[in-house]
Structures are given as C-alpha cells and as structure tokens.
Amino acid sequence: HYTPLPYTTPHHRHTTPHHRHLLRSEALVLIAGFAIGAALCGLSPGTLGRADAGGALSLAVVVQKAVSGFTVLGKLRLFFLLLLAAGWCWWRDRADMRRFLRRNTILVGAFVGALFVVMASGFTASRAGFGLELYSLLLLLRLPLRWPFGRRARGAALGALAVAVCALLAGAIVYNYRSNQAYRDMVAQLEDKEGSYIIATELPRTPSVFALYQLPPITASTKYDDTFLDGGWNSAIAAYYGRDSICFLPKRFMEEACSHPERFAEFTDCNGQLGFYARLEKESGTPRRAVFLLRPSRRGEIPFCLRPIAGKLARYSAPEVEEERIKRMELGGRTFVLVCKNPTVDWRLRAVELRD
C-alpha cells in the first residue's frame, strides 16, 4: 500500500502512504481509534483541571507554567541530546534534514505535542517528561547521522548504549518493585478494616538517575501534611474501602511514638524526618489551633531582591503564624497531638503552642 513519491529532484525518492490506499486499508480504523482515544485523554476532566482550562489566562499563569515546564526539561537527558544531534545534522545537510522531517511527520508532531504538554501543564514531577523523552529517543534512532567510523565500531557503540539503557531500566525496576510492595502493604491494611490509621512504610531516597523512570515512591522526605486529617483524599479512600475515616502515618513515627514516647514531651518532627510536629497531650480539652512562634529572619536568609520589602512580608517578618490543621490521636495507649507543618515559615520556627 505504499507508492514512491519523488522529491523536488529526480535523484531522491522516498516512500509514503498513498491517501487513496490509506482510506481503504485497515490502518484507517487504527488511526481513528487512536484519534478518539487521544481526544478522550486530552479532554478528560483531570487533564483540563491540571491545565486550568477553565481559569482566566494571564501573564502570571503563563510565566508560572513556563517555569514549571523548564523545571521538567531540566530533568531530561535525551531531549537535549536530540537537540544537539538534530542541530548538527541540520548544519551538515539541510536538504537531508528536510527529507527526515517529511518522512517522520507524525513522530515529529508527537514530539511537539509532548513538549507542549510539558510546558502547558504546570506539572513539575519528573514523570511529566516521560513521553517527551520517549519521542526524543525514537527520533534519535531515526536521525540521518553519518558516523565517522566503520560498521563494527558502530555496532559496538550501539551495543554499549543498549547495555547502559538496560542497566538503567533494571535499576529503576528494582526501586519500582520496592515502592509497589509498600503500596500493596498499605492496600492490605485498608482492606483489613481494622484500626483507624494506616502505617506507611518509608523507602530510602533513590538515585536521581532513576527519577524519570520510577513510580512515585514513599520516601523519608514525603510530606504527610494532609494524610492524618479528615476530608479530602482521605475521605474518598475511606469511602472506597467502606471505612468511616482513615489517616496515614509514617512507620518511623509509629515506632518512635510507641517505643520512645518520652521523645515527644515537646513538639518535634524527629529532626526533620516527619512532615508534621507531634507531642504528647499534656492538658485535657481539644485545642482548636496551633501557633508557630517564629524567630527573626537573618539577613542572609532573605533573597537580595526582597530585602527592601521584607518587613512587609509575613514570611520574613511575622512573629507568629496560626495553624488550624491539628488532630488528636490515640497511639499505644497515649494521646498525641499532631500539627501540620507550614513550609512557608518552618525555617524560622522557634516553638509550637496550642491555644483554644
């Protein structure tokens, strides 16, 4: 079903699908199915929500999304390698690159679409760039490169590259497996329907080289800001598993609270290892709010461009900040008070007080 179509010169010919044959082939059904599926994914509520399609487009929104997009691009590798290789090929033989672009119109379009998603979504997680990296790899393999060495050397280089890629993915699979085991453990606790909290097993931080290819892990740096509060995702998870309420707590905190409760005589985050502050309850009654008592900002902690107005910014000048995200929990026969962190002012925290 392919008909050779000539380029502008009679010496160059290439093969492309003939439109008449395409309309009568099985490929049309596959293309239509792909287009419908892509439209459903692209126009889904989740996609539109992340793109803020319903909000007003302003310069601030555009800048914020562009910054997020460049943050993702900074985590990529093959994307920049493709740009360098394509630039070299264009400088060496522009006519050859034009033929390359015509032959790979669909793949180039997918690459541009993936780049647009990265720049427009405002999502900064590494996995947001996976599609862009995939299309970069496919285009790299199809680039009309002219190697300055023989066939054996090319085969050895490609073999070494294949081994490196397999080693990279093998390492990522190991970390993904451990993360998946921790996830399955939490699901088993949810299905057991006993207890009011779920113990989340923390995993060590993975090497950054695997970040793009790994599933979101449960790490020691995970911020359990909202996981012990009622409402939000916890309410949805509880309803799905037939529970009245649910909360998630890191295993590290559970072990410390049950075996060394004396360490929680005052509010602590276990040397920065928790995403909240915890303390044994000292007085009766239910506190309504917590107050973060803050030390003064040091000059070196304030960005140079903000120093003239730092006195008017609460982040740098407020003596105290209220926090209403608190909860009392019964653990190991003792009552603990948990207070969410406030990342805006945590670096100035001097003490935490509970007030009615």
| Strand segment tally | 10
Secondary-structure-derived class: alpha+beta
Cα-atom radius of gyration:
28 Å
State the end-to-end CA separation: 78 Å
Overview of this structure, please?
This protein is α+β, with helices and mostly antiparallel strands and 356 residues long. The protein contains 12 helices and 10 strands. Helix 4 packs across helix 7, helix 5 (78-92) packs across helix 6 and helix 7 (105-121) runs antiparallel to helix 8. The longest helix has 42 residues, at 151-192. Mean pLDDT is 78; it is low at 1-16 and 217-225.
Provide a compact summary of the structure.
This protein has 356 residues and is of the alpha+beta class.
Keywords:
single chain, 356 residues, alpha+beta, 3-stranded antiparallel beta sheet, 12 helices, elongated
Topology:
Elements: E1 2-6, E2 13-17, H1 19-23, H2 27-42, H3 45-51, H4 59-73, H5 78-92, H6 94-103, H7 105-121, H8 130-142, H9 151-192, E3 198-200, H10 233-240, E4 248-250, H11 251-259, E5 276-280, E6 289-294, H12 314-317, E7 320-323, E8 326-331, E9 334-340, E10 349-355
Parallel strand pairs: 3-4
Antiparallel strand pairs: 1-2, 5-9, 6-7, 6-10, 8-9
Helix pairs in contact: 4-7, 5-6, 5-8, 7-8
